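quick one before i forget lol
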Amino acid sequence: MEIAFNDVSFHYKKGNVRGEKVLKGLNLEFKERRCYLLTGPCGSGKTTLALLLKGLLLPASGKILLKNDSISLSSFQRSIGLAFQSPEEQFFKETVEEEVAFGPTMLKLNRIEERVKGGLNTTGLLYEKFSRSSPFALSSGEQRRLAIASIIACEPSWYIFDEPTAGLDLEGRSKIIELIKNLMKEKKTVIIISQELERFIDLCDEIIVLEKGRLKLKTDTRTFLEEEKLDEIEHSLPYHIKVLRILRKRGWDIPVSITDPQEAADIIADYEL
């Protein structure tokens, strides 16, 4: 399974007036069972790309193609799970249980109760404790996990997370990251939209960088970290990688594509000047 953007452009309209293009001639492919980190400065088009992937927006020009003959593009897009950056904006049911049950019910799936319990328990919102709670009474971290539980209940094979850890405390971030790791172990396709490279860079197979609506870079993590010029993105790198990059610029013959902080510390400690 592979979904491809073929020269895709998009612009939002202000009334009947066409605005500036948000995405410009995008050529990009996503393959199943891989984890992607989609990053770039604010306003670079990351969320718009996610909405196009999900089918909530249509390209102004170009095509989105699905390389699979057994299912249509629209059917595939409906099956993609998308967790928005502000999950509270997508809630409208009175209880947590009803919120999680809504998606599977609309898709006419079976085992609704089992799916609800599974989705909540998987995300750490124990069914017995949270099922009768109001979604709007939850903390920010719990609301994000509720949004993800609503997606998991539909059992998609592709997931998109838009800034999944933004504004969360350490515990909340850890739970979201652990959940994403578990999805990857299950061979799900995961697309993470985030400027917080330090949180996700060691999880991903590939990194995609957008800049002003254009594709600036798409490569594997190791090659990405070896790039000499990362411009605005460099400040978001993990601290230990920043140190390695500074030392290399000062003449140290060391690798900089090290995602493990302890390994980086050992390389620095053992280096002979």
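fyi The mean pLDDT is 88.
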